[in-house]
């Protein structure tokens, strides 16, 4: 399992990208989400991942734990990625 506790920023950020790669999800995938003020937003998965990578370690760990639970239970991790995209669109 990848750790968020590496010593470099690159090590901390690798989990999200690796998970998406393992699931065959392209960073170029574009999500269509509704924003409160500007209507439909088109957000690439890579933008969502960059947002997730930019959070503090505690928040990254919470997101990693959530994604791990979803994956372990056979769920679709794209539901969580879309949830974060909707947050960005607000």
Key phrases:
58% helix; two-stranded antiparallel ribbon; disordered N terminus; 90 residues; single chain
Task: Write structural notes for this entry.
The protein is α+β, with helices and mostly antiparallel strands and 90 residues long. Helices cover 58% and strands 13% of the residues. A two-stranded antiparallel sheet has the order 1-2. A hairpin with a 3-residue loop joins β1 (30-35) and β2 (39-44). The longest helix is centred in the last third of the chain and has 16 residues, at 57-72. Mean pLDDT is 87; it is low at 1-8.
The share of residues in helices is: 55-70%
- Give the topology string: H per helix, E per strand: HEEHHH
Neighbour order of strands in the largest sheet:
1-2
CA radius of gyration is: 13 Å
List the helices and strands and how they pair.
Blueprint: H1 9-22, E1 30-35, E2 39-44, H2 45-53, H3 57-72, H4 77-89
Antiparallel strand pairs: 1-2
Helix pairs in contact: 2-4
Q: Could you give a quick summary of the protein structure above?
A:
The protein has 90 residues and is an alpha+beta fold. It has helices at residues 9-22, 45-53, 57-72, 77-89, and strands at residues 30-35, 39-44. It has a two-stranded antiparallel sheet with strand order 1-2.
